[in-house]
Amino acid sequence: MTGVVLAVLAGATGLLLVPGPVWTTYRIVPPPPTRARSREPRWLGKKKPVDDPFAAAASYDLFAVCLRSGLPVATSAKVVSRSAPPALAQILAHASDLLSLGADPLQAWSVSADADQSAATLAAVARRSARAGSSPVRGLEELADSRRGEAQDQAAAAAERAGVAISGPLGLCFLPAFVCLGIVPVVMGLAGKVFGGGLL
């Protein structure tokens, strides 16, 4: 009976020591009642939403396919901006508009210092190819492969961190229960036989 009580106490202690989940809360709210409606989502939470790295890689691939098929850079950027993630779509649409007006490619592909990583790397590849006078297809394909590899590495690292984080609560819950239910009754039974049998 003592072993069961100790096991219950150890399990309850382990559950109390398990860290709670960190939730980011999202809420969909209706747009403001004005003529110029904002279509940007409103987020409640500490972290700013980031683009899906696989969607960004797919946009790089689509951009490369459009350029390889013979479309101009401005038209390709406009086509890709329709299906790209928000941060990437913004830089693609901006560059497409400026290039259609005849702006310098280095100016058209300029981004702010706080731009998203996917948009900044795309703009860097486009500026480099414009400066060299070459097609950015090869750079876009390498960028897509690199982006997918980074996302897979981050996912594997997160899975490994989760495995390490789970081992602590499991140890706190199951090891005391194993000791109380598996070892203590055996030791108490042997001790009762030894002391009760008059061997000592």
TrEMBL record:
Segment forming the signal sequence: none
Bilayer topology: Multi-pass membrane protein
Protein location: Cell membrane
Annotated InterPro entries: T2SS_GspF_dom
GO cellular component, one term: plasma membrane
Major localisation: membrane
Keyword line: Cell membrane, Membrane, Transmembrane, Transmembrane helix
Type II secretion system protein GspF domain sequence ranges: 61-180
PANTHER family found in the cross-reference section: INTEGRAL MEMBRANE PROTEIN-RELATED (PTHR35007), POSSIBLE CONSERVED ALANINE RICH MEMBRANE PROTEIN (PTHR35007:SF3)
Protein name: Type II secretion system protein F (GspF)
Native source organism of the sequence: Williamsia limnetica
